[in-house]
Write a structure and sequence with these properties.
The protein is α/β, with parallel strands linked by helices. The protein is about 25% helix and about 20% strand. It has helices spanning about 30-40, 55-60, 105-115, 140-145, 145-155; strands at about 15-20, 45-50, 65-75, 80-85, 120-130. A five-stranded mixed β-sheet has the order 2-1-3-5-4, with helices on both faces. About 40% of the residues are buried.
């Protein structure tokens, strides 16, 4: 099932947050996608890079009606698998993002925002299953191959 926000119903720009760590191989995929999106100069997208700290994320999305989060996933699926989840409707399980270096990272931030009734009206998570989260630069080939797929998926919200 494809989960999509309604791109034609957005009165305000969509906030896109690429999450990751460039120095842990595939954990950097959200940052790589964000940089590729910035190169496209999409006027209806505000693109931000983040390390994924929960408090920072909550502050970034606090007043935004529509947010897309992009991050690496570690869920035992095949490396390079593309995951989508409308997290307003379906919680993002904490074991879905086991590679986070933050004790208070993305999944807890979403659930705390849900409890505080401060989630964006639309919040879409796009993830790429990682293969290599060891120290070092660069994405593994299967994760790198998914970057243009995620970029194209996000581009449909550019208006």
């Amino acid at each position: 099932m494809t989960i999509m926000l309604n791109p034609t119903a957005q009165p305000a720009p969509v906030l896109v947050i690429g999450i990751g760590n460039d120095y842990r191989h595939d954990d950097g995929v959200g940052l790589v996608v964000a940089r590729a999106l910035k190169q496209k100069s999409l006027p209806h997208l505000t693109i931000i890079e983040s390390t994924g700290g929960g408090a920072e994320l909550m502050d970034l999305w606090q007043t935004k009606p529509c947010v897309i989060l992009i991050d690496a996933v570690s869920s035992n699926a095949e490396p390079g698998t593309f995951h989508q989840r409308n997290v307003v409707e379906t919680p993002l399980l904490t074991n879905f993002l086991t590679q986070s270096s933050h004790a208070f990272g993305l999944a807890p931030a979403i659930e705390l925002s849900r409890t505080l009734n401060s989630l964006p009206v639309q919040l879409l998570f796009l993830g790429v299953e990682g293969e290599d989260f060891s120290l070092g630069l660069g994405l593994s080939p299967r994760v790198q191959a998914m970057v243009p797929v995620v970029v194209e998926h996000v581009c449909q919200f550019s208006g």
